[in-house]
């Protein structure tokens, strides 16, 4: 028995290069557990957001856990890095509030949009076009996109919390403070405090605490049972409509999903890869390419299962900080998400007012990138500002990106600085114009 155990440890060590990177099985286990605790809020947030489209909430719990497990397994095996993948907060908001509720597209068609965005992303990765696009997009614009998405998420979060509401004269106004709104505010500040205290899983803790308080005050029905077999994925599995999205009017949405996923994944990977002890630069570059392949493959699989875009999670840095150094940690994270399948009754009982503050918190994390923007000249400031402001103001990430790209091209043409506009950027600009026109 001992020899068999040692054989498994040796296999894992050699497969994931644990010893070479100065790690241990124990470190990978606790790193994977920490990442799970840090991003497990997605089990509550994703079903809460996507179910607003009419998708089955119970099935979404299972789909979210399975998609996250598969994505993390792919990232762990292909990339051999302690970085997990799950349905993205922001992309699920774009799916729900812009594509389905805003444009009136059935959720089945919206899943088809996500599917094609993943397919095109995969084609770009295989053909090597991905690198050209990445190199063509100015860092200023990709950073501005992250900041704008942060504001967009915060707006959605505040609306879902009930703190703001529509006003015909000022667009939005402060809403009346009811008990659910007060509980939601308490949850938001609890998340602030736990984050500042560097408490692992602070978002999850806040969601659970506020839900329990809501149950005690009669605002939330008590779940009939705590554990059950996983809900069936049948209401969502393979329900995407791939033929219904083959129309020019949805090219902009496909384009937006693809680029947001690409920018988001790349920025997360560039940040987290600095913390992974690769043997050399060649291993780092190969690992980055494989992780992007895992990312687009996870998006395709997620759409088939029935969820919005699956992407890399920057919160994985929490697991790295406690000792995770290889992809084995991501395997452990995926296994924890599979175990979470059995708490579906609890997830279904979680109210929106307990989950919504998480959108604001994620928005703050993304908005902090504003410090990286060069705002010293109007030439740099205008495209960045246009990208940022139009996302929350139009309730559309796609429009914000398109206006940002177009304004960048116009500003540089006006300044006769044509060398800053590559051929790829011209193509992106034309696609952006088409997106706005349709």
* Number of distinct beta strands: 4
The tally of helices reads 20
Radius of gyration: 22 Å
Calculate the terminal CA-CA distance, rounded to whole Å.
65 Å
The H/E string reads: HHHHEHHHHEEHHHHEHHHHHHHH
The percentage of residues in β strands lies in under 5%
In round numbers, the mean pLDDT is: 84
Q: Main β-sheet: number of strands, strand sense, barrel status?
A: 2 strands, antiparallel
Rough shape?
A: globular
For the largest sheet, list the strands in their spatial order. 1-4
Given helix and strand content, the structural type is mainly alpha
> Regions with pLDDT < 50 over 5+ consecutive residues?
none
Estimated helix fraction: 55-70%
Please give a quick description of this structure.
By secondary structure, the chain is mostly helical. It is built from 20 helices and four strands.
What are the salient characteristics of this protein?
438 residues, two-stranded antiparallel ribbon, two-stranded antiparallel sheet, 4 strands, 20 helices, 67% helix
Characterization of this structure:
This protein is mainly alpha-helical and 438 residues long. Helix content is 67%, strand content 3%. It has 20 helices and 4 strands. It has helices spanning 2-16, 25-39, 42-50, 57-79, 91-100, 107-127, 129-136, 139-161, 179-196, 202-216, 251-272, 281-305, 317-321, 328-339, 344-349, 352-355, 357-367, 378-394, 397-414, 423-437; strands spanning 85-87, 164-167, 171-174, 310-312. The strands form 2 sheets. It has a two-stranded antiparallel sheet. A two-stranded antiparallel ribbon has the order 2-3. Helix 2 crosses helix 14 (328-339) and helix 11 packs across helix 20. The mean pLDDT is 84.
